[in-house]
Automatic annotation (TrEMBL):
Keywords for this protein: Glycosyltransferase, Transferase
CDD domains, sorted: Glyco_tranf_GTA_type (cd00761)
GO MF annotation, one: glycosyltransferase activity
Organism: Gillisia mitskevichiae
Protein's UniProt keywords contain tRNA-binding: no
Family statement: Belongs to the glycosyltransferase 2 family.
Name of the molecule in the record: Glycosyltransferase 2-like domain-containing protein
PANTHER family cross-referenced by the UniProt entry: GALACTOFURANOSYLTRANSFERASE GLFT2, RHAMNOSYLTRANSFERASE WBBL
Gene3D superfamilies: Spore Coat Polysaccharide Biosynthesis Protein SpsA, Chain A
Residue intervals of the Glycosyltransferase 2-like domain: 242-368
Length: 513
């Protein structure tokens, strides 16, 4: 490791190696020294640390955090770059960081952090003109994360904790410039409006100056030459249980069972939760008992419908180290489970989202990367994390339980990785399924709550206040052209009423949960 000791991300105090010996550096400018050291020491972690935190470095944990070469991590002890105002235009999980666990985020701090020299060099040609160290760090990770760089807030970097919220150091001009560079241009106007409405500020100069920046939105970078081979020693076996909720899809479910029976790495147990609302009905799956299967089968036949309840029942039955959350209308190759677990060990991760496509559908995202979503029918998760979570009944018979479960995992320190090369075919069965169509109570309101109470519940649970305001603003803007009221004042009044209705339904649902 090569450690750059600095003051306030500006002045270099000293550069040291792991042994504590001084490393000669001819650069006085911090960003120039950063690139120079990456060139000289491509196989070393190029680390940075604010001078006053040097004695708090938790060096023994660094090898666990930087367990492969495509990781960049930092921790905001007292200072972060962007304020919560970034949430006005970004509601992805990477913004509202849980500082108590290893958490996937592109938001970096100059307080302490690091990345492999050769990995940093992949970004040099794009960003060597950036002279502000914090802006540079966040540019690398914002751009890199979508191209396969694994980015984290890592409290384990230091033996120091603080209950105080880190202070943001970026100016409004830096925020506007960053948004212009790395987001769709329309978000600049949304940010300006939110500053005006919610902060009573008129940052016209920052808004206009942002257009002078060079646009980096949608640019690509190839990190494939930086191989990933985690140095973590696996603490789990290959034992795996499969969870499959189903309703009225016996033909499709049995196809899934056949695919599971052909796996090179067989599941230990398959847990099927079959639902039928008719209390006088019989199971449609006698084959689960009449046929010999190469794994244990646990079959629940219940008359309460709903994906959340069904999966929670199955979760309680899990005994293996891994859980495959499977849909009842998918098909996959015989090496799916073996490849998935091999890749999870190679990447050193505890959750993987596989590439689920319909027939003829093309892969959109072609790189392994940190994932902002979660698929409860296409994922494999370490059961040590998954069994601490539950599918919330607030989302029952609606949508959003996947995203909610994913957030529970992240808040436990479980990163979710998307893998484009491990594919599942989604048959999109036309009948049955867990999405039993029913008229929900809130759907009988006039006017309808907006957003749906399930979306509102997710926002209230996981967004900070500025993300909620940004979500509200973008919703109002996007929905305007999809409805008939064209008077902006009348429309705004109507949407505020519908927003309030949604909040009230969420409050009611949370009391009943």
């Amino acid at each position: 490791m090569i450690l750059i000791i600095h003051i306030s991300g500006k002045k270099i105090i000293e550069v040291k190696n792991t042994s504590g010996d001084t490393v000669n550096c001819n650069q006085s400018d911090l960003t120039c020294a950063f690139w120079d050291l990456a060139e000289k020491f491509p196989e070393e972690i190029i680390a940075w640390c604010e001078e006053k935190y040097c004695d708090d470095l938790n060096i023994v944990q660094w090898s666990q955090i930087f367990h492969h070469d495509r990781i960049m991590a930092s921790f905001a002890i007292e200072n972060k770059f962007f304020s919560d105002s970034i949430g006005y235009i970004d509601q992805l999980p990477f913004v509202n960081v849980n500082r108590k666990v290893l958490y996937a985020t592109w938001q970096m701090s100059s307080d302490v952090g690091g990345s492999k020299g050769k990995t940093l060099l992949k970004f040099k040609s794009l960003f060597e003109g950036i002279k502000d160290f914090d802006f540079l760090l966040n540019s690398i990770t914002k751009f890199g994360q979508q191209n396969g760089l694994f980015c984290y807030s890592a409290p384990g970097l230091v033996n120091r904790t603080s209950d105080n919220k880190p202070k943001a150091t970026a100016t409004s001009s830096q925020l506007f410039s960053f948004i212009y560079k790395y987001y769709n241009t329309i978000w600049l106007s949304v940010l300006f409006w939110c500053y005006l409405k919610y902060e009573n500020k008129f940052p016209l100069k920052a808004f206009l100056q942002a257009f002078l920046e060079e646009k980096s939105f949608l640019q690509k970078i190839d990190l494939s030459a930086i191989g990933i081979q985690s140095k973590k020693i696996p603490e789990t076996s290959d034992s795996l249980d499969v969870i499959i909720p189903t309703m009225g899809r016996s033909k499709y479910l049995l196809q899934v069972m056949e695919d599971l029976s052909l796996q090179g790495l067989l599941p230990k147990r398959v847990i099927v939760v079959e639902q039928n609302p008719d209390v006088n009905s019989l199971s449609e799956l006698p084959e689960l008992y009449s046929k010999t299967w190469p794994f244990e089968i646990t079959h629940h036949f219940i008359h309460q419908t709903g994906a959340c309840n069904a999966r929670n029942i199955a979760l309680k039955e899990v005994e293996s180290d891994w859980i495959f959350f499977a849909d009842d209308d998918i098909r996959f190759e015989p090496d799916l489970l073996e490849r998935a677990l091999t890749e999870m060990n190679r990447l050193g991760v505890s959750s993987i989202n596989m590439n689920c496509k319909q027939k003829g559908e093309k892969t959109i995202f072609k790189k392994i990367k940190q994932w902002g979503s979660f698929g409860s029918g296409t994922s494999i998760v370490n059961s040590a994390f998954a069994k601490q979570c539950a599918f919330s009944s607030i989302y029952e018979h609606g949508y959003g339980e996947d995203a909610d479960f994913g957030m529970q995992l992240r808040n436990l320190g479980c990163d979710i990785i998307y893998h484009p090369e491990i594919e599942i075919l989604h048959l999109k069965a036309p009948m049955g399924g867990l999405r039993e169509k029913r008229i929900l109570a809130w759907e009988q309101e006039e006017p309808l709550p907006k957003p749906s109470p399930t979306l509102m519940a997710f926002a209230l649970n996981y967004y900070n206040i500025k993300q909620i305001r940004g979500f509200k603003t973008s919703l109002f803007l996007k929905y305007y052209n999809k409805q008939s009221v064209k008077n902006p004042l009348t429309y705004a009044k109507s949407m505020r009423l519908r927003w309030k209705k949604s909040e009230l339904w969420v409050e009611k649902s949370m009391k009943e949960e």
